[in-house]
Amino acid sequence: MKKLLTILTGVMLIGSSASAGVWETNCAGCHNGVLAPEKEKLLKKYETSSEFISAARKAVKEGKMPRGLGIRRAASELYGKSSIGKKALRETADSSKDPYAKYKKFFTPLPALPPIPADNPLTPEKVKLGKMLYYDPRLSRSKVISCNTCHNLALGGDDNVKSSIGHEWKTGGRNAPTTLNAGFLRVQFWDGRAPTLEEQAKGPLQAHVEMNSTPEIVVRRLKAIPEYVELFKKAFPNDPDPVNFTNVVKAIAAFERTLTTPNSPFQRYLLGDESALTKEQKEGMKLFVKYGCTACHNGPVLSDGQFHKFKWNKDLGRYKVTKKASDKYMFRTAQLLNVGVTAPYFHDGSVNSLEEAVKIMAEKELGKKLIDSEAKKIADFLRSMTGEVPLQARVLPQLPGNNPE
């Protein structure tokens, strides 16, 4: 495990300079030639970065563009030394024999690891402990439900049911999102009520319809198991009383940040393997861009992390968190990596078919009615995003001790 983390961290640091910039993250989703002009046309229209910035600021002032996009940084990327200028764009297009290669610019390769918070650094000891806690049902009140029960790493980081079954056979009414690649999301849960993985981990442990535990129960049981006490000391060596609820969720979150899924056909294609996708999948990618799906589904996990209105049932979405009328029926954009293995779909798990989900989203969010062949091509493209769950994460740990109490 230590060797694995060393390698992953090294790859992340080496590849950080190649990660998506402001343009790819904030702008490319809308500037796709359908919703707004592509960057080739912008570069042709505005000869200098100052002209580009002036036009963008005017659009913001007129309400045509949202604030906080990082216009200056985007301009620097487009016009600066490391930018993709007119000549570079032309040379890139000419260098590939793949007619679909031009659509790659709307997507971002998956980094080796997500951002690591300063207050919860990633260590082999912490990840080892977090994995054991993720799989340990003794953290639940009934001692039969673990994180892996609803977020099964052998399935796709979820449980493939409409709504997870929790304590005393209760359900929460929402579909369990995958924990795979969750570290890349800006907020957690469908309604965004948790800003971090650490905050997210607190929720299911205490929710009465899930694990129905309490911080006191969790800490008391863990302190009763000598091997866990030693593992906490190694994971949090500077803490005088390391077995506490804050460290429990920190360890689980640290483990979850290692659940990245590389080597999907889609990722291999983005990194240069033009044969990784079938022609039909490439056609699906073209349609995905053409119809404006990248406006919301962008970035390394194909989610902008923002909230969008999706009135599908009586669930009021983010309104339950903020109590703002404007947040009614608002839900966080779902990530799309591994979406081919995480059915059923939507926040209520009401749709089993990926093709049907694609059709519904296209019509409700984009006003586009797709024919069956288009939906199939887009769904096939999305299935190319199924990556490899780390083997170390999927191997069941040997849990310490006997059931306390």
Automatic annotation (TrEMBL):
Keywords: Electron transport, Heme, Iron, Metal-binding, Oxidoreductase, Peroxidase, Signal, Transport. Residues 279-386 form the Cytochrome c domain. The keyword Iron applies. This is Cytochrome c peroxidase. PROSITE patterns: CYTC. It is found in: Cell envelope. GO terms for molecular function: cytochrome-c peroxidase activity; electron transfer activity; heme binding; metal ion binding. GO terms for cellular component: cell envelope. Residues 1-20 form the signal peptide. InterPro entries: Cyt_c-like_dom (IPR009056), Cyt_c-like_dom_sf (IPR036909), Cytochrome_c_Peroxidase/MauG (IPR051395), Di-haem_cyt_c_peroxidsae (IPR004852). It comes from Thermovibrio guaymasensis.
